[in-house]
Amino acid sequence: MKKFYILLFILVILTSGCSKKVVKFNKTLLLSTSSDPKSFNPIIAKETSTTLITGFIFEGLTRIDGITLQVQPSLAEKWEVDLTGKIWIVHLRKDVLWNDGEKFTADDVLFTFKDLIYNEAIPTSSRDIFTIEGKSIEVVKLDNYTVKFILPEKFAPFLQLLGQEILPAHKLKKIVEDGKFTSSWGVNEKVENIVGTGPYKIKEYRPGEWIILEKNPFYWKKDKEGKQLPYIEKIVFQIIPDHNMAILKFRTGEIDALSIRGQDYYILKPLEEKENFKLYDVGPSLGSEFLSFNQNIDAKIPDYKKEWFSDINFRKSVAFAIDRNSIIKNVYAGFGTPQYGPMNSSCGFFYNDKIIKYDYNLEKAKEFLKKGGFIWKNGTLYDKNGNRVEFTIVTNSNNFERIQIGNIIQNDLEKLGMKVNLLPIDFNTLVNKLTISKDWEGVIIGLTGGIEPHGGKNVWHSEGQLHFWNFYNRRNYFWEKEIDTLFEQGTKYLNPVERKKIYDKWQIIVTEYLPLIYTANSNVIYAVRNKFENLKITVYGGIFHNIEEIKIKDEDI
Q1: Are 147 and 177 in contact, with CB atoms under 8 Å apart?
Q2: Model pTM?
């Protein structure tokens, strides 16, 4: 692996009346990512390796404050809604330019919704979220800086979901007309063609090595003194698949901040003062880690395995057999809690603490296998037709924690007489298996989660782009149809108490029928060098949700 010493610090020596030398850090933020992005196209992105980068390049009409969790204006300056709750007038900022200097206008908003999100030829998860009872939102240009959204029904999370990235019509309209959008803005694209309104733009990408972002020279935000933001000039993402190597680079100053594991905490905590950094334990993450089985009718697996995976008795047996406390102890070093459903306590208001919980119980696991017609011969488990219960679980090879979870689950299920093979593979290959080829049996993977349940519609609605366990040619489960109905109903009530009743029921159904078998939720822990001002670290926002106002301190040497 090529050593990475790119511009760690550009030292600017200032001479003053005294003999002391004042040295400034270069205004560069040094970060890491565990894998190459799959593309730079946020509309079709389905993986965090892409959205980690595009989050700095693109913006929506609104944003969620990382501290208050309230909706704030972004590319939209203000808005109003009529008494029906269906017609929204959104007023756009007039001082926004794309990072190539072109003006941002209402045409870009219409293009994003009409030509991209509602374009059936484009495989975007956003279409699921902005589809209300099977109907699209009508988007009308009133003038260059005013847009009317006409909703088919009341839609409670509308303002929150307007955080959807807006893309430039002047760069992409011709590409869409030529039917090439889905393959556009891939990792081989010239970086100058990737145009956003966000605080940064791509300067350079070298596969397997780094991604360099530089300050958008046309960014619209300014500080109280009128100085253009952001303060930090560049962000360098080193591509480091190995987490231990990332920690080593953090300790040597080649990385400024990273998310760490529970076991890393005990190693790094005694070194805080000596190595000039601080650890932040900000509580349970919003995301989740889970095991899921392939229930697609046209899955590229034997039919008898499809029958196992579609049997609720089989899935409940697995849920009871997973030792979540062992995962917390051995994978998260005690920094975690058992998770049983699609939301957890950090999600706040919409979390239902009355969900069905599957505490570790091998006897109950065996009871459900018996209900499903499974039998044991000399301790080995077989189905009723004499097929040995053996399957492969895939997970992404660059995520050591998931591999550890897989090893624990493998051991747990072998106690039931199952033979489980664990196969770590490249993350982008894994995504392809889940969403395109359907050539998989079991998978350990995760979702990022959030505070608004409707944000998961693309996962939970039966026609959602991320409904991977039962996709397209799907089995007709009544409970999945019920979840579809709940997600349609959940947007109609502006009263949050009424909405919570609906999403409480959704969480109960998920824990009853177990399309995803949840494992444990880790705490969010960050290691950050003591070189920044204006950090406001939270579970929801992370370290750099307010990137434009973060400064790098000057230091004397």
Answers
A1: no
A2: 0.73
Do 123 and 177 form a contact (C-beta atoms < 8 A)?
no
- Are 81 and 171 found together in one domain? yes
Each residue of 33-70: b (16+ CB within 10 Å) or e? bbbbbbbbbbbbbbbbbbebbbbbbbbbbbbbebeeee
Q: Which of 9-18, 66-75, 387-396, 458-467 has the lowest mean pLDDT?
A: 9-18
What type of residue is 137?
A: I
Which residues touch 19 (CB under 8 Å, ≥6 apart)?
A: none
Asked if residue 453 and residue 503 are part of one domain, the reply reads yes
CA atoms within 13 Å, Cβ hemisphere of 115: 23
Three-class SS state of 363: helix
Give the Cα separation of 518 and 528 in Å (integer): 30
Structure tokens, 538: 């939270």
Maximum Cα–Cα distance across the chain: 89
Tell me: the pLDDT tens digits for 379-400?
A: 999 999 999 999 999 999 988 8
* Cis check: omega of the bond before 496, within 30 degrees of 0: no
Q: Do 552 and 27 meet the contact criterion of CB atoms below 8 Å apart?
A: yes
Contact 520, 339 (CB under 8 A): yes
Q: Say whether 129 sits in a helix, a strand or coil.
A: helix
6 domain residue, yes or no: no
Give per-residue pLDDT as tens, 319-338.
Answer: 999 999 999 999 999 999 99
| Residue 457, pLDDT score | 87
Place 473 in a pLDDT band, splitting at 50, 70 and 90: low
> Three-state SS for 264?
helix
Residue 12 has pLDDT above 60, yes or no: no
Quote the number of domains for the chain: 3
The stretches of 379-463 forming alpha helices (DSSP H) are: 400-414, 427-432, 457-460
Counted residue by residue, the chain has a size of 557
Half-sphere exposure of 391 (CA within 13 A, CB side): 32
What pLDDT, on the 0 to 100 scale, is given for residue 476?
A: 81
Residue 16: burial class (beta carbons within 10 Å; 0-12, 13-18, 19+): exposed
φ, ψ of residue 277 in degrees (nearest 5): -145, 175
Last residue of a domain, one of 127, 144, 175: 175
d(CA 371, CA 368): 5
Kindly give, in sequence order, each residue whose CB lies less than 8 Å from that of residue 398, ignoring residues fewer than 6 positions away. 34, 35, 241, 242, 426, 427
Task: Give me the domain span that covers residue 304.
Answer: 288-522
Extended strands (E) in 299-349: 336-338
Asked if residue 4 belongs to a domain, the reply is no
pLDDT at 2 over 50: no
Comparing C-alpha atoms, which of 419, 422, 421, 440 is closest to residue 430? 440
Fill in the amino acid letter for 51.
T
End-to-end Cα, the chain, rounded Å? 31
